[in-house]
Amino acid sequence: MARSADETARTLMEVYEEVFGNESYSFFRINWPELRSLAGVNKLTEEYLREVNGELNGSGYVLVPMDNFLLVASEDDFGAVRAVPPRTVENFLPGDEDDDESEDSDDFGDDEDDDDSPPSRNWSKIMARAKNKKQDSVAEDLAEDD
Predict the structure, then answer these.
(1) Helix H or strand E encompassing 36
(2) Based on the number of CB atoms within 10 Å of its own CB, is 141 exposed (0-12), middle (13-18) or buried (19 or more)?
(3) CA 37 – CA 101 distance, rounded (Å)
(4) What does the alpha-carbon distance between residue 113 and residue 100 come to, in Å, rounded to a whole number?
(5) What would the pLDDT profile of 32-67 be if each residue is shown by its tens digit?
(6) Are residues 2 and 39 in contact, defined by beta-carbon separation less than 8 angstroms?
(7) Running DSSP on this structure, what letter comes out for residue 20?
(8) What pLDDT, in 10s, does the model give residues 1-11?
(9) Distance between CA atoms of residues 32 and 60, nearest Å
(10) Model pTM greater than 0.85?
């Protein structure tokens, strides 16, 4: 029986709390076939994943799709992750190398349009990569999880 995106998100949050791999309340990975089974669907659509991630985000969790699996994590899991210092960011800002280009061609827009929200994920690209993944590597992933 298929679960709604909300039900699937709540289930993933419950799995997050479970003890396995000698840990609980820690980020975990789940492969694509396992998530399909958990959701009770034959196909994970882009819209469905967006809805699941939206529900997770609303509770302080995130769904991070990778080629071979997905990560489920809490904001707290990233508290100890190193932060980029402002000086390093400054080293990577676009320079004035292209003085020939007009100032109207910058890609940054007006400051009033800036916000700190994360960019949207390209779910189509992620889904295409997962769909094209070879079955034998899925079996390898399942064997690693045992």
Answers:
(1) helix 32-39
(2) middle
(3) 53
(4) 26
(5) 999 999 999 999 999 999 999 999 999 999 999 999
(6) yes
(7) B
(8) 899 999 999 99
(9) 22
(10) no
Residues in the chain: 146
Q: Are 38 and 11 in contact (CB under 8 A)?
A: yes
Asked if 31 contacts 141 with a C-beta cutoff of 8 angstroms, the reply is: yes
Cβ contacts of 108 within 8 Å, gap of 6 or more: 114
Residue 127's Cα: distance from chain center in Å? 12
Task: List the strands of the sheet with 69-74, edge to edge.
Answer: 28-31, 69-74, 61-65
Across 66-86, b (16+ Cβ under 10 Å) vs e yields: eebbbebbbeebeeeeeeeee
Count of CB atoms within 10 A of residue 119's CB? Answer: 5
Buried b (16+ CB within 10 A) or exposed e, 45-59: eeebbebbbebbeee
Does residue 26 contact residue 18 with C-beta atoms inside 8 Å? no
